[in-house]
Design goal:
By secondary structure, this protein is of the alpha+beta class. It is built from four helices and three strands.
Length: 79
């Protein structure tokens, strides 16, 4: 665990981020009191082009069909 005061953290932020990305536990402190922990963001990536659930041929075709006037809201009296 590495404990760093705010002034040092501002001066060495890039270095501290690299250490955190490598798994080092970085604690930022003010007046010796621990305030926050610097940790990497965990992201869940889904491969490009994959839908959460596959569409049937009918659903895929419906997604490509033009919208009706009603679906576009042209029958709405607020126009």
């Amino acid at each position: 665990m590495t404990k760093v005061n705010m002034h040092e953290a501002k001066t060495n932020l890039s270095k501290l981020v690299e250490l955190a990305l490598q798994g080092e536990d970085i604690i930022l402190a003010k007046s010796g009191k621990a305030l926050v922990r610097l940790v990497p963001v965990e992201t869940e990536e889904r491969p490009v082009g994959l839908h959460a659930s596959p569409l049937s041929d009918t659903e895929a075709q419906a997604a490509l069909d033009p919208l009706s006037d009603e679906e576009l809201g042209f029958n709405d009296s607020s126009f």
